[in-house]
Amino acid sequence: MTIGIPGTSLAAFSLKGRLAVVTGARRGIGLAIATGLAEAGADIVGVSASLEPDGSDVQRAVENAGCTFTAHQVDFADREAVKALAERLVGADRPVDILVNNAGTIARAPVVDHTDEAWDHVIEVDLTSQFVLTREVGRAMVERGSGKVIFTASMLSFQGGINVVGYTAAKSAIAGMTKALANEWASHGVNVNAIAPGYIATDNTEALRNDPARSGAILDRIPAGRWGEARDLKGAAVFLASSASDYVHGTVLPVDGGWLGR
Question: Is 199 an active-site residue?
Fold first, then answer.
């Protein structure tokens, strides 16, 4: 069955038989992405600092889609724990076909009140842990000659934001790292790309949504006229994880309701 373009088949979007690791999978965007990849056929390894060993929402969603689910509880502020996770993933019998780096945190405070501790924590979780895990899992992909790496970037990969200097620094670096890794790994059959969610209704944006002035200003700028939902990220994730994106390298794909077009 074609989708309107000669030679392009829906089969190119199938993830049947592939194994995807999704970090930050317990809720929000990570839960939606893990669900979307499973709906496209991928088995899922979910990772989160507080992920239940059994019976989680993400496990139910993946298994309801007919795919297998494995849970790992890892604190992404603990570099040694991230390295241990990488060793388990690389040493497993089944190789990782898709790595979705979605785990993240945010600290909101004016720059003058943004402590060293908050800065270090955000940079460790949102940037350094992403690099460490991707370096190790990506090495195996490069050796094998295939793989898909997807980072969760942000609107603040393009803009400065307000009261989130550490988060902005980390997400700006994620955009740069996406391009740098793509430059090195594209010739080895490994695609590295990122999704930049717009203003999505998750726990991270709860403070903004509860502030009438900020929420109103944000909605006024979004051409789609609404906050995004986590499920809005599914299609982009499936595309970047599938063979449909085999010639897409180093891109940061906004899913933002048109925010950046204003």
Answer: no
